[in-house]
Design a protein that fits this description.
heterodimer; A: mainly alpha; three-stranded antiparallel beta sheet; 3 strands; 74% helix; B: five-stranded mixed beta sheet; five-stranded antiparallel beta sheet; 19 strands; 19% strand
Chain lengths: 382, 621
Amino acid sequence: MTGQDFVRQLDEGQGFHKAQDWSERLHIDFMLAGFLALVCGAGLFVLYSASGQDMGIVIRQAVYMLIGFVGMIIIAQVSPRLLMRLSPWIYMAGVVLLIAVLVAGIHSKGAQRWIQLPFIRFQPSEIIKLIMPIVVATYLSKRQLPPSLKDIVVALTLIAIPVVLIARQPDLGTSLLIGASGLFVLLLAGLRKRLIFSALMLALPSIWGFWHFVMLNYQKQRVLTFLNPQSDPWGAGWNIIQSKIAIGSGGLYGKGWLLGTQSHLDFLPESHTDFIIAVLAEEFGLMGCLVLLALYALIIGRGLFITLKAQTLFDRLLAGSITLTFFVYIFVNLGMVSGLLPVVGVPLPLVSRGGTSLATLMAGFGLLMSIHTHKTFLGQSR
Amino acid sequence: MPVNTLKDHKAEQRIVSIRVWLALVFMILLVMVLVSRLFYLQVIKYDELATQSEENRVLLQTVPPVRGLIYDRNGHLLATNRSTQTLAIVRERVEDLDQLLDDIGQLIPVSENERDRFLQQIKRRRPFESVPLKFSLNDKQAALIAVNQFRLPGVEINAELVREYPEGSAFAHSIGYVGRINERELKNLDPALYTGTYTIGKIGLERFYEPVLLGKPGYQEVEVNARGRVTRVLSRVNPTPGKDLHLYIDTDLQNAAIKAMKGRRGAIVALDPKTGGVMAMVSNPAFDPNLFVTGIDYASFNDLNTDIEKPLYNRATLGEYPPASTIKPLVALGLLANDVVDENDRIYDKGWFQLPGSDHRFRNWNRKGDGWINLNQAILRSNDTFFYQMAEKIGIDPLHDFLSQFGMGRKSGIDIHEERTGLLPSTEWKQGAYSQPWYPGETVIAIIGQGYMLTTPMQLAESVTLIANRGKHVQPRLVKDDIPELQSPDWGGDIELDQKHWDLVINAMEKVVSFNRGTAYWRIGRGLKYRMAGKTGTAQVVSIPQGEEYDAEKLKEFQRDHSLFVAFAPVEDPQIALAVVLENNNGASNIAREVMDAYLLPKLASAEQVQASAENKRSAQ
């Protein structure tokens, strides 16, 4: 069995010997990097239109992207082994930061999500996005699979602490996504079907608890508005109604680049951040959306490939969780913009304007690259 | 690493692999949901959403027309449009509406009424539309809002055109005013014409000429953003501004007439005998029409409406008064035309007249009697006895038929809607109104303009104009412009009479003023620089308004006789004809003299100057 793995490795090695050599030495996965660059490029295109042809915004975003790529490559240099060793410490540091946010964070737009340091202001929840799968993967990879009940309880506790802290900021969207990234690790680790089933059964009362004890009024309002957008057509329902109009009026082929009226006439709020896909849908139609989805599919496919190719349990759990979380981002964003899901404030990965989300995503892809490019090193050591 | 972990390693990898494949299946399913959602929106619902997108984007806006201006005969503005400031609020930008309204209320007065109306309206508007709270802010109020703008988010000051009457109360009854469109008017008007227009002509010229003053609204298709802000005009049809009106009114003459009234109650109508143009039309007391433009408050309106002196009432065309002796020149013409009397016929006036078989004495105003008197003298002396005697000879019906040619008993057709017909009695009328026959004694009263007979000052002016023109009829009219669709029918025809008869009556009327036995001589005849023909009148006030609580002093005042005077001048080339009615007071002739002086003296002076300079030239040659 071990031999088989080895042979397969060799086969590949022969075919792409040089390239693999290169990419492994630099710890860069050129295929993934290429797909990312394609989506980023498309994103800039749409952003130019969505920002009302504001070249300044586009250039700033391009600079973020470059920084993101550099950051991704730097993170790719860190061995997964080192991450495993450091994970308890960074987890604790992350939780401390989240508490600090609640105690002494900066208020902005009704939420308290930032910490101000002398030089930068940052959002600890973004760092948790990376820490969460690392910590849960580290914990579970050191246990027997499938995980025991005790392991599950410990893992769920590890997940719950940051989730609740972030939900109180309040940042429901992020806290749910972070919770999901932790749960993905559990699911990939072979959580028994019976347990998944009972968890779903438990979900109902916990949703009830969440609704009554964790969610804030405006968050509840969003959910209610989602269920019936017409109830508040000029308030929260406005976004949903207008983005549906934007998407639908794009039709099959769209109105053409820069010719979208919904976004350019400010009917569409947050047109260059969370709702940017509506601009794409309006200007490039269903075809444009499918092209973007295809590009995303390439990235996810590559992520899954890396997951399957990963050699250690930690690598597989982490890579799988990162890939699935990336998918969830896309799904939630598209779902909320097209009116399938409540508006929870999730940006469209790599396309929405903003440096923070980009940095976190690229860091995640850095981890994927690290997992992929450090495996031969492990193979050699065996 | 321990061996058992290594052994488990492969199994564990398999678990993860299976889960990854499972996840992939889930992801594909979810993507299918997404894609079908997009397909649903972009293909199935495309038509509907594309329409909505278009409706979002394009807004049809009305551009209200500018209301036509009104000028007097010299180009002086009588009605104009003033730009005013309106305070409006954009809901979207307001956090706490109640708080904001309170804050505004502390800066400028906001009535409960204004607040309620605003709160009603804002419910029906989109949050980015601005809804007016307070109209016509004065400069101080606008400034107060402006300096506090920073703490009043969502408050806007907008410009709006509002009607203004620079001459205030002077033309309240002729020009009238515009006011906010009310519910009843809303039901009857064409909404397409009135989109964006909030006012409509309520009385006077503003009402009569509403269709031409209004103009036609324009439209523009604009592209708007979600805040309702116009980003681009796609197409535009310009509004057609309302037509300007040019009047026969002479502002200086009007003001002179008002001045001559000296605040007393009454009416003056001055016509141009050449055109029928109304040069002055006064009804005193009056009111400030500007009060009505943006909506008069209830208390002020109530004060005006219940005022015992009735300032809202246009006495010039609605006021019906017994014409009294001012009717005598017309009656004289009627007697001559009907061959009832000859210019040389004389009667003896002993101070009273008795109908045969009756012992009721109809008295002359001069109780002593004027002695032997002919028609000419009867007019200049305003001798009642002479006319009493003629009553029996002519009878009411021929008198009615004759007088009706001069406009009695029908509307003059002046171009405002507020006009009454007066009352010209006849046997037929009496039968209809009272189911009673006409009694000879009633003719005796009617022939001196008392009894049933009622005329408006406008009718008196129209009839004296007919005398001045020797029967040539001109239609009384305020507006000089030819607006065929809005001219009421010209229902007076020329009156064909013997020139001798015109001469006799006009001569007698001139003597009323110029002869020392004339009834107006001692009041106005001396120092007259032009030839004026006139006729005095004193009307007994038979009935007084009832059912209202007046104090005794006031009641007495309201029972006094009315003083009337009709006149034209100069006799040889009439340039002005007028009627004056002074309620419960005397001195109508003095007012007529003042008005005529104000109009004719400057003209005569300039004519003399022209003549003098011409003579100077001749003598220099």
